[in-house]
């Protein structure tokens, strides 16, 4: 078990160095008021005029002059190179749910690595915010008050099955597999219920559902248990 750097009874915002605007940061902090800058995300935090509660990462993307403005006790360098900075931050934060900004856009490889972290840290719920969408590892069960016609995309990272209510194309009895069958561009008929048999399904929704997804976890909604033997990601190039 990793030592926890930041404990919070409320949702926490993680800020990376990808695509993000000051208005994104302002919105996230109204939902998840504690802010953790993930390495180069410190630059975006300072540009928005916000001092993070912690800075976590290997610090290879955080400029020295930016770090110098952060109190020493808030800087947490993790030098190992076997995991991404997003993974380092997520596993060292204890909160009911995390809002992840700056992990989508700019570089596709970074975005894919973030999706991988959602899988291996499925017990630490995190809602990633993209320009128009939000992405989360679908929990064991979730009920969403959706509007008919809204897109509900399901993308498996591993073979997984589940059940649904309220989708135009129900998923019951389907064997999802990233190499065989995916469930993108489904649509809500109204309120939607999803049940998953195991972690591994990315749920991608319009960005307007950020608050309902955060509320699901913050209010004690279903979440995946910690793995008995945590997975260690392979070394990064």
Tally of domains: 2
Arithmetic mean pLDDT:
93
**Counted beta strands:** 14
Look up the CATH topology of the largest domain.
Rossmann fold
Q: How would the global form be characterised?
A: elongated
The CATH superfamily of the largest domain is known as: Thiamin pyrophosphokinase, catalytic domain
* Class computed from helices, strands and strand pairing: alpha/beta
CATH class of the largest domain: Alpha Beta
CATH level-two architecture of the largest domain: 3-Layer(aba) Sandwich
N to C succession of SSEs: EEHEHEHEHEEHEEEEEEEH
For the terminal residues, how far apart are their CA atoms? 25 Å
Largest sheet: 12 strands, mixed
Write out key terms for the chains shown.
237 residues; alpha/beta; Rossmann fold; 12-stranded mixed beta sheet; 6 helices; 2 domains
